[in-house]
From TrEMBL:
GO terms for molecular function: ATP binding; ATP hydrolysis activity; transmembrane transporter activity. It comes from Algoriphagus boritolerans DSM 17298 = JCM 18970. The keyword Nucleotide-binding applies. The lineage of its organism: Bacteria, Pseudomonadati, Bacteroidota, Cytophagia, Cytophagales. Pfam families: ABC_tran (PF00005). This is Putative ABC transport system ATP-binding protein. InterPro entries: AAA+_ATPase, ABC_transporter-like_ATP-bd, ABC_transporter-like_CS, ABC_transpr_LolD-like, MacB-like_ATP-bd, P-loop_NTPase. It comes from the Bacteria. Keywords: ATP-binding, Nucleotide-binding, Transport. Gene3D superfamilies: P-loop containing nucleotide triphosphate hydrolases. Residues 4-233 form the ABC transporter domain. GO terms for cellular component: membrane protein complex; plasma membrane.
Amino acid sequence: SKVIETHDINKTYKMGSEIIEALKSVSISVDRGEYVAFMGPSGSGKSTLMNIIGCLDSPTSGTYILSGKDVSDMSENELAEIRNKEIGFVFQTFNLLPRASCLDNVALPLVYAGYSRSDRKELAFQALSDVGLGDRTKHRPNELSGGQRQRVAIARALVNNPSIILADEPTGNLDSKTSYGIMELFHELHAGGNTIIMVTHEDDIAHYAHRVIRLRDGLVETDKINPNPTRGI
Ligand code: ADP
Ligand code: ADP
């Protein structure tokens, strides 16, 4: 089944009298369980598209269907609700709370979703265990390596069991050995049935994905299945 369908999405920004067309009639569809990389030069529209897919922003025109629901014209509040339920975000800069323990960082999305304290603990512990950090629950982010911090962020993205994991340059702040470790984890998450969309400008990172969509000047330039994705380190 399809988790994402965009139909002729346009996004324009007004800068004074200038109109910037960040996305021009972008139509893509992603099935549940796919692993997709977005590539393209700076300014090609990757962030704009990720923001729309992640329900952080709405298209100027066109339709966006997420998990069968038309979210194109939803209000900010409705989008926030959908976002909390359907999307797990992973950022280049990890975006962890420095004073909170790993367990509390991972449990945070569950607070918004209204889970009880004991359920939050249990689910956060499970998510941390799933990324190999079951023995780091009480540590704070600054007591961990960069790769471990990104694993905590990935556990936080997973804890809600979202429809999609959206990762914006997830290895952008990591050395290459650590990056490959994170890609191994993405490989396992994908093998476990998760839908993953990541932005990267690194060819060797994109090569872990099973499909690569390239943007240029707000248009989909190419959309290709990767016949032989990288598996091992
Ligand atoms: P975004 O607009 O999504 O934040 P950018 O494409 O502007 O992403 O790039 C994010 C970071 O990656 C920036 O620090 C940029 O300088 C760097 N970057 C982008 N493209 C390349 C590339 N081809 N090679 C090396 N670094 C890049
Ligand atoms: P990428 O992520 O590929 O670097 P972006 O989606 O960030 O590309 O940007 C696409 C185009 O839209 C660029 O020309 C950029 O300058 C413009 N743009 C992005 N966000 C805004 C904004 N908030 N206001 C005005 N122009 C923007």
